[in-house]
Here is the input.
Amino acid sequence: MTVKLLAAGAAAVAAIGAAAAGVTALASSGAAVFQVQPVVLSAPLDPPPPPPPGAPDLPSAGDLSSLCTNLTNPGVSYHSKTGLVAGGLSDNDGRVADHDLREAFRAGKFPQSYDVTNIQQGAPNTATADVAISGPKFGAPVTRNLTFVNQGGAWAIAPDSAQALVQAASS
Here is the structure.
């Protein structure tokens, strides 16, 4: 289906181009020299194949980086972050994290970026990754090895790793 659609589109563009070239050739004096111009610069590719059976289902670096960014966002209350931590956040831990992140924001430690590398399969339904935190007040990136938990297809950060991430981001 996609190949037929692509071929039909290319044929239509070629026909329009040929008609335009013919009109231009009639309007110009002398011999017309036609040059082939690329019409389709890229074509959609098929999605990557699924992992082979039995291969670990690991999160992408982008997914984990986004999770870290959302968890340490000083402008969002911990009530909105409960689903980001495996098992949720207790009220006490959430209030402490919010306080620490707001203080770090006031101290100019945000915005921060999270570079995730070395994603490895951990225990069943878990993955570990090295997360390098960098921001305006960090002399060099601070790296922590964090654990993430697959909760029914959605990745969340393990509670002890969430605490380590908030401490690293706010210290």
In short: The radius of gyration is 26 Å. The CA atoms of residues 97 and 141 lie 21 Å apart. The mean pLDDT is 81. The chain is about 40% helix and 20% strand.
